[in-house]
TrEMBL record:
Keyword set includes Transmembrane: yes
Keywords: Membrane, Transmembrane, Transmembrane helix
Example of a GO MF term: calcium ion transmembrane transporter activity
Domain of life: Eukaryota
Name used for this protein in its record: GDT1 family protein
Gene Ontology cellular component terms for the protein in this record: chloroplast; Golgi apparatus; membrane
Signal peptide (from-to): none
Main localization category: membrane
Source organism (scientific name): Punica granatum (Pomegranate)
Family annotation (Pfam families): GDT1
A GO BP annotation: Golgi calcium ion transport
Membrane topology: Multi-pass membrane protein
Length: 188
């Protein structure tokens, strides 16, 4: 919702493509590991729960820190002046911090890479990479990620016209926490 869609897509797809390739390679390695050396400890799920909780709490904190949108005519006087001043300061800080296209690509890449590490699609890709053609699994997964990410980016740009970034932050944070709990209890 905040940044140029092409840069977000580039960063996101870079992360998802790298993760897919790594997953297929891990699957091929696991295929060659004897059964007596395989562990039953769900390390991937524990890492996923930890990352989901981290991103959930971070999203909620970031949304909490955003100023509340004031519609014209609702507030007057010094409160409105403070709001306008805070909004300008926030815009300067955000635009100054992420004005470089490489920073936007890197932020998208790192957020997606670490959020997706250890999730079910990664584990499924590892399993498919061990059992099926690695080229077919990698190309199919990357194509699927491209389609889903494109829809998500276009949907985010559309939703930006109708809902606030603060609401999206709260909802995203809550969803991260719900998925963390669901993953922890093995719902998905």
């Amino acid at each position: 919702m905040q940044y140029e869609k092409g840069l977000v897509l580039l960063g996101s797809m870079g992360a998802l493509s790298l993760m897919t390739i790594l997953s297929v390679v891990i699957g091929r390695i696991f295929q060659s590991v004897p059964a007596q050396f395989q562990t039953t400890l769900p390390v991937g799920e524990y890492a996923a729960v930890t990352l989901l909780i981290f991103f959930g709490l971070k999203s909620i904190k970031d949304a909490w820190d955003l100023p509340t949108i004031v519609r014209s005519g609702e507030k007057n006087g010094p409160e409105l002046d403070e709001y306008v001043e805070a909004e300008e300061l926030l815009k300067k800080k955000v635009s100054k911090r992420l004005s470089n296209p490489l920073e936007i690509v890197w932020k998208s890449f790192s957020l997606v890479f670490f959020a997706e590490w250890g999730d079910r699609s990664m584990l499924a890709t590892i399993a498919l990479g061990a059992a099926q053609s690695p080229w077919g699994v990698a190309s199919g997964a990357i194509g699927g990620h491209l389609l889903a990410t494109s829809f998500a980016i276009l949907g985010g740009a559309f939703l930006a016209n109708y809902i606030s970034e603060k609401l999206v932050g709260y909802l995203g944070g809550v969803l991260f926490l719900v998925f963390a709990v669901a993953t922890f209890f093995g719902v998905f």
